[in-house]
Structure formats: structure tokens, C-alpha cells
TrEMBL record:
NrtR DNA-binding winged helix domain segment(s): 172-229
Keywords linked to the UniProt accession: Hydrolase
Region annotation (Disordered) ranges: 215-244
CDD domains noted in UniProt: NUDIX_NadM_like
Compositionally biased region (Polar residues): 231-244
Name recorded for this polypeptide: ADP-ribose pyrophosphatase
Database matches in InterPro entries: NUDIX_hydrolase-like_dom_sf, NUDIX_hydrolase_dom, WH-like_DNA-bd_sf, WH_DNA-bd_sf, WHD_NrtR
Biological classification of the source: Bacteria, Bacillati, Actinomycetota, Actinomycetes, Micrococcales
Positions of the Nudix hydrolase domain: 18-154
Amino acid sequence: MFANVAERAERQPVLAVSTVIFSLRDDERTGRKSLWLPLVRRTREPFRGQWALPGGPLGPRDSLVDTAANNLRDTTGLVPRYLEQLYAFGDMDRSPTRRVVSIVYWALVREDDDHNTATAANSELLDDPNVAWFRADDPEVLANLAFDHRDIIEYALWRLRNKVEYGSIAHRLLGERFTLAQVREVYEAVLDKALDPANFRRQLRTAANIEETDEFLSGGKHRPPRLYRYTGSTTHPLESENIS
């Protein structure tokens, strides 16, 4: 079943597409939001029984971005608002059977999208033991992933933490309107550290591409906070942008 390096070198490589999906969820460890991602349990060899990123082979007539979106929908039921090409992973020893070159995408899913999907068309997925959500930086989970998926997730986290400093990632994890506290939650989750609320609020109010609205968040016990919106350019939800 398995092949050595020399045997794998003689076989035609397989081209596959995988997706890293990030979403914000409550974290009981810290009392704040953290990044989570869904994984699928492999039901066949190699690495049978181990968790892995959603993915699959690239069909002869399929585009990369369509394959990423379809694999994501078929395995998790999720439809991302943002899907971006991350990197290509093609080391010779990624798979013990034959060489597999994976084009990896990352997706950002808003928390309300996640719950809406799970309570509607995705209801059957909640009972699927082969699909589950995990903290993106859980060391125990990362240590037991199939293939080189730990390296892929850690690379995606590194890219996200760098990109959040200058991009619109916070906007993509929130709704069309958001409070400054919600933006801070995104930054704290992505950067995995607490930020001083007063300093962060002061810096954010002077940041480009974020402006206040005349709306306020309703439903709270205290004075409702003002809502803000993102004014920068946004990529089409399924538009690929190669950042490698």
C-alpha cells in the first residue's frame, strides 16, 4: 500500500485542493473569542481515523477555486464569504502512497454564518462524528493531524496574524456593522493576546477604512455602543488572490 521515496518519485503526482477555514467562537480557557476550524476524520488509509483538513482531488475540468468551495460545502456544509489561495505544498514525502501536491485555500466564516448554516441546511452535519470543530492552535489536535496538515494550519495562522495588521480580515469575520469592541475581539482572537481596550479604541478611531454610523447596537443592558462599518475595497467572496 505504501511506497518509498524512490517509488513515489516514479509515479505521476496527484493534484489536490485543501481548505483551512477560520471562524470565531467562544473560548472557555480565556473568556474571550478564539479562532476555530473544522476538521474531517479520515475514513480510509493512509492516516485512517486521524483528523485532516477538508479537501480532495482536483478534477480534470474543475477550477481550483470551485474545487475548494465545493469540498468545503460537501464536507462541512459551509459557504464562505471569503476564499483566498494560500500556498502550494508539494514535498515528496507528504503522503506515504504517492506524491500529492496540494493547492491550499483559506476561508473566513463569520460566526453568525456558521450558526445559521448549522441550524438550517447543515443540520445533519451536527450528528456526523467525522466532522468537528477544534481550536486552531490546540497543540494536542495539531500533533495528531494527518499528512503535513499541522504545517499547513500553522502557516495559515502565521499569514493571518501578519495580514490582520494591514488588511480587512476583521471586517470579513464580522457583519456589515460592528462595534469597536467586536473588532477588538477579532484582533485578540487572531493575535492570541489581550489588548488594552482604551488604547485599541483610540487607535481604531483614527484608522483608515473604518467609519462610524448613526446606528447603535440594541439589546444590551447598558448604553448601546455605536456601530461602525468598513469602507475599504472588498474582494468578491470567492475571488482567488494568490498571496504566496
